[in-house]
């Protein structure tokens, strides 16, 4: 997979709210070299006085030529995320470079069943995997587990509602009638999902550091090969 070593202009062609604090931006990036599900890119914003700031964001969709989608979570006092979530408008442009990453990626030729586990905004790169898997009508069994604080915090809620193999757990407030009180994702819940897969899966776990470490440890304790548990984390280490 090629990488854009130079900065490319990315123009916003569409924008939509995912949650009260997260927004998806659809970008047109002429010259984009393509990407694999699970990769990310770097955004650079430059002000008129020459000051610039850079941040990395996961790509939410499979490769589709010059079109790239990001879903950005507003970070308190985050100068880049604040602009992307609340400031940028359709027609605006900024710079991107990438794609970045070669470990936390899915290739369709990999025959292993897929276990995707996301904490909060960690669903973004995993959604690229889900969408590519659906686009290709891939034969590999796939299970997605998403942990969010409340129903309002779930990215891509409408899209996920119509998909098989999706488990959503709520840690602070559950929807009425869910039958599951708010609680952290537990090892028995992970075990139940793993049991639905026909053989040992390749697991992709993304989210805050503490969540990723707890899930990865639980999966290894359930018997998964540590080499088959791929992780990507954000926040303090």
From TrEMBL:
Record's keyword annotation contains Iron-sulfur: yes
Cross-referenced Pfam families: FAD_binding_6, NAD_binding_1
Keyword Acetylation on entry: no
MF GO annotations: 2 iron, 2 sulfur cluster binding; oxidoreductase activity
Recorded superkingdom: Bacteria
Residues of the FAD-binding FR-type domain: 5-106
Alphabetized Gene3D superfamilies for the sequence: Nucleotide-binding domain of ferredoxin-NADP reductase (FNR) module (3.40.50.80), Translation factors (2.40.30.10)
Native organism: Motilibacter rhizosphaerae
Cofactor(s) for this UniProt protein: FAD
Keyword set, alphabetical order: 2Fe-2S, Iron, Iron-sulfur, Metal-binding
Protein name: Ferredoxin-NADP reductase
PANTHER family, per the entry: NADH OXIDOREDUCTASE HCR, PROTEIN RFBI
UniProt cross-references to InterPro entries, sorted A to Z: Cbr1-like_FAD-bd_dom (IPR008333), FAD-bd_FR_type (IPR017927), Flavoprot_Pyr_Nucl_cyt_Rdtase (IPR001709), FNR_nucleotide-bd (IPR039261), MRET (IPR050415), OxRdtase_FAD/NAD-bd (IPR001433), Riboflavin_synthase-like_b-brl (IPR017938)
């Amino acid at each position: 997979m090629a990488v854009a070593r130079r900065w490319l202009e990315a123009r916003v062609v569409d924008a939509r709210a995912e949650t009260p604090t997260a927004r998806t931006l659809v970008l047109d990036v002429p010259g984009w070299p393509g990407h694999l599900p699970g990769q990310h890119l770097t955004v650079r914003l430059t002000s008129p006085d020459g000051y610039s700031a850079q941040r990395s964001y996961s790509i939410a969709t499979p490769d589709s030529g010059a079109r790239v989608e990001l879903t950005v979570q507003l970070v308190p006092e985050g100068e880049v995320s604040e602009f992307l979530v609340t400031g940028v408008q359709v027609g605006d442009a900024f710079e991107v470079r990438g794609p970045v990453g070669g470990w936390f990626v899915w290739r369709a030729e990999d025959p292993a069943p897929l276990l995707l586990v996301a904490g909060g905004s960690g669903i973004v790169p995993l959604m690229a995997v889900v969408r590519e898997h659906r686009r290709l009508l891939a034969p590999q069994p796939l299970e997605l587990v998403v942990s969010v604080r409340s129903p309002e915090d779930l990215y891509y809620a409408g899209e996920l509602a119509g998909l098989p193999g999706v488990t959503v757990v709520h840690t602070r407030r559950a929807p009425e009638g869910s039958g599951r009180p708010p609680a952290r994702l537990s090892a028995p819940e992970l075990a139940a999902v793993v049991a639905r897969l026909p053989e040992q899966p390749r697991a992709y776990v993304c989210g805050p550091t503490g969540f990723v470490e707890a899930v990865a440890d639980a999966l290894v304790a359930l018997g998964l090969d540590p080499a088959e548990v791929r992780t990507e984390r954000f926040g303090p280490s």
